[in-house]
Amino acid sequence: MNRKFLVFVSLLSVLLVLMSGTVVVAQGETFMGKTAEELFPGAADETERANAMAALLEANLPDATGQFAGQTLTLAVQQAGARGGISGPYYFWREAFQAATGATLEIVEIPQAQYFTTTSTDFLTGQNSYDVMNIGAWFLADYVVNGWIQPLDPFFEQEGFPVWDREAVFPSLANLMKWEGQWYGALNDGDAQMLYYRKDILTDPDWQAAFKEETGMDMPVPPKTWQQLLAVTKFFNGKDWNEDGDPDDGISLHLRTGGQGMFHFMSLSAPFAITPAEGDDIGKITKYDNVYWFDPDDLTPLINQPGHVAALEFLKELAATGSTAQFGWELAEAWNNFLNGNAVATFSWGDVGSLAQDPSRSTIQGKLGGARIPCSEKWYDREAGVFVEDSANPNCVGNTTGGSWYPVMSAFTDTPGLAYYLMAMQAAKPINFFNVYYGWTGVDPGATYDLFPPIGTASVDDYVAAGYNADDALEYITGYGENFFSHPIYQTYLRIPGTETMWTILDTRLGQAMIDELTPQEALDLVAQEWDQVNNDLGREEQLRVYQAGIGYVP
Amino acid sequence: MYKKSRARYFFLLPGVFWILTFTLFPLIFSLYLSFTNANMRNFTRATWNFVGFENYASIGSDLRVGETVVTSVYLTVGSLLVTLILGTFMAWLFNHDIPGLRIFRSILTMPLFAAPIALGFMGLILFNETSGSINSIIRGLGGTGVRWMTDSWSARTAVLILDAWQWTPFVFVIILAAMQSIPEELYEAARLDTGSGWAVFRSITFPLIAPALGTVALLRLVETFKILDIPFSMLGGGPGSATQTYSYYVYLTGLRSFNMGYASSLAYILVIIAIIISTIYFWRVRARFE
Question: Among candidates B53, B58, B91, which has minimal Cα distance to B173?
């Protein structure tokens, strides 16, 4: 009895020490002689500061003051401020970086719409102002082909840098950070679009009965196809389902020109336009299968093919189940509309899942449903030249839309070691994981340790410790993981010089179609015509070679 | 005497250097670029070849040019008319003895000092369809909100309103100065013949402020045709491409797509239009005064 009691007390003590670990760290520990208060002046509260300190100590950053003291590193990042998405984490960890290296980190914020132009012009004019640039994955081809950035591989085996786990990066995202087998980017933000919906509303028996009565269908929870989602958003649009006295929205999208709305179209249109290959290897890239952007034999744009056009017609139908103001919304406005409880569904990046846990931005904590991006019951078989309709076996295509914002190193930096230190530090598991579970950072899951078993090693408790509702964490992280790992095939990513221009063209023409200035067919025909022109201007043969290499097509 | 002459040239040097470096060189270099296929995106892969008038020939078949010209013409004509009419009316109003005239005049000129890019962001707030104050006022008066951000012509009109708001004071200041330079004796003599204020304005004021109006119209014409900052910051050129002006398209082609050859040819067309307009204007002015 006595021994049992002693064992019990010992176990309880161990448990208490473990549970209070973060507090002990925050109160007593220092890093390079600095306290948590000194290192994280921008923390929102003591819990966030304590968790950051714990992550910093766990990252086990090597003391690099002997190597880098007195040096200055200039980082270019999208403009969002010290607590804004993507730029925020660099500010948040700046003091720690400076303490570890003795160097100074200068952060230059550039508006996202100007980011490519500003950084490219900087290189073209030989100013080379930035040592590290946090870029969108679709910039990579331009940067590599022009020789503006350098591979990171030479640093991987060197001592004295923070350690990050490249094996843990989702394979589809890792491919976007590499070019011809070499790593150019380090892990930061992992992007893919998934479906979010109001689980509390869709599982409400009264709403389920009303839905059945009106549509004759059972409420799909979660909606597994775009067609099911449309039925749901159409049903809820205009009804006061949140009981605030005003009619509410079905869907919430951001469709303003220049507001990244073209990404929605990419994710939505993939299962309308991409077909799996026949045989055992359904992911194989052939002339007709698993291609989305161009014909891999001759670079003819596919964007105006019947599948893509049908998808745009569908997007218009879906957008009509939301506010007309959507056409003037940027990303944050569409998110806020969903987070404030005014829309029953949205599809977007991982940020929505984490922002839903922030009481200052969300009223829907504990009500969130999440699922992988829907499939389509109708798609175009380009080889056969016919549409296929099969609601029992829909066409499912995953995406890495957006493809993440990650840091790359200038080929002209005077401080390559210091640049890599910063990149590796942000990619180090404890720091990256911290950034992932705090939604304000804009950093979405990109490594298996962010996901739940069997794919990953995270637990719901990890997320609950950061303020998540347990059910929401389960919905969001499971859905996000399924997005990356459960689809039979995936949309290829466009990585050729001129991608940024092509996406700007797509964005503009989609905008014209959405406001009925052009029909979907007219809009996408113009996109095809203008993409052709871009390829011709940049050299068609070289563009074709880069495209084939980028998607893994062997003629 | 000789030394004095040398000193004169020495003091001219900075000005000459400035004009050669920052005016003539870019002008000539961009003219050269407009005859090449220069594309800075394939910087390391391609050479710049002379392509003759190919860029200029492409402009005719470029669909985007037609779209952007429609927007530019709408904004130019609309804004020109609004600013000239309002500015002249305000100048006429302030050409009378009004208490606190100087204070009102100072307040009225304040929009001139706003940066157009900031005005665009202000427009984003004012013209917001759901929470903007303009739609709130319209709804408060019993109307229905206008789709300022999501309807093509409403969006263009929103840009026009902002531009006119900023530049009406410019017209006001110039025309007021012109009105105040008209000798009072002319008005006194006219009043002996007629008591109609409109007749006095039509026969005395308008003809005498016409040269100033012409100059203002010319400046505004060229300036508004170049408009880029307000549509850029307020609407990103959208919805669709509704507020993409010709200058916006030159910017996108040159500094977003880095197609410098084609962008230079587009810009030169703008230069040619400006030269034609100002030549016609000065020819008319010279004819009038001769």
Answer: B91
pTM listed for this prediction = 0.85
Q: Do strands A132-136 and A489-490 pair parallel, antiparallel, or not at all (unpaired)?
A: unpaired
CB A464 within 8 A of CB A472: no
Q: At CA A490, angle to CA A485 and CA A495, rounded to 5?
A: 120
Look at residue A21 and tell me whether its pLDDT is greater than 50.
Answer: no
Which neighbouring-strand residues pair with A78?
A110
B256:A513 CB<8 A: no
Cα-trace Rg, chain A: 24
Per the domain annotation, does B108 fall within a domain?
A: yes
For tokens 């009223």, what's the residue? A363
Q: Is residue B224 part of a domain?
A: no
Amino acid of residue B133: S
Chain A residues in contact with B252 (beta carbon < 8 A): 504
Residues of A in contact with B148 (CB under 8 A): 328
Read off the tokens for B140.
């408060």
Q: What is the DSSP letter of A444?
A: P
Give CA–CA dist A337/B231, Å, rounded.
25
* Domain boundaries, position B82: 67-209
What are chain A's domains?
26-190+402-450 (3.40.190.10), 194-399+489-551 (3.40.190.10)
Q: Is the residue at B122 inside a domain?
A: yes
B129 and A325 within 8 Å at the Cβ level: the answer is yes
Report the distance separating Cα B45 and Cα A542, nearest Å. 9
Q: Does A545 touch chain B (CB under 8 A)?
A: no
The Cα B180–Cα B176 span in angstroms is 6
How far A511 CA lies from chain B's nearest CA (Å)?
A: 4
Cα B29 from Cα A214, distance rounded (Å): 68
- Kindly state whether residue B240 falls inside one of the protein's structural domains: no
Longest dimension (CA), chain A: 85
- pLDDT of A27 > 60? The answer is no
- Please write the tens of the pLDDT for every residue from A354-410: 999 999 899 999 999 999 999 999 999 999 999 999 999 999 999 988 868 999 999
Question: pLDDT value at position A23?
Answer: 36
Point out which residues pair with A72 in neighbouring strands.
A104
φ, ψ for residue A381 (rounded to 5)?
A: -95, 105
Pairing mode, strands A489-490 and A397-398: parallel
Give whole-number Cα distances, B98 to B92, B94, B102, B103, in Å.
11, 7, 9, 11
**How do residues A115-160 score in pLDDT, each as one tens digit?**
998 999 899 888 999 999 999 998 998 899 889 999 999 999 999 9
Partner A contacted by B145 (CB < 8 A): no
Alpha-carbon distance of B254 to B260, in angstroms, equals 5
For residue B239, cis peptide bond before it (omega within 30 degrees of 0): yes
Tell me the CA distances in angstroms from B54 to A126, A320, B30, B35, one per residue in order.
29, 43, 15, 7
- Residue B252 is classified by DSSP as I
Question: Which residues lie below 8 Å from residue B206, measured CB to CB, with a gap of 6+?
Answer: none
Residue A28 or residue B127, greater confidence: B127
Q: How would DSSP label each residue in A275-308?
A: -PPSSS-TT---SSSS--SB-TTT--B-TTSHHH
Q: How sure is the predictor about A28, in pLDDT bands with cuts at 50, 70 and 90?
A: low
On whether the CB atoms of residues B250 and B29 are closer than 8 A, the answer is: no
B138: domain CATH number?
1.10.3720.10
Please state, as a whole number, how many other Cβ atoms lie within 10 Å of the Cβ of residue B188. 9
Q: What does the block give as tokens for A520?
A: 């979907």
B244 and chain A in contact, CB less than 8 A? yes
Q: Which parts of chain B register pLDDT below 50?
A: 45
> How many angstroms separate the CA atoms of A207 and A200, rounded?
10
**How many domains is chain B partitioned into structurally?**
1
Chain-chain contact of A539 with B42 (C-beta, under 8 angstroms) = yes
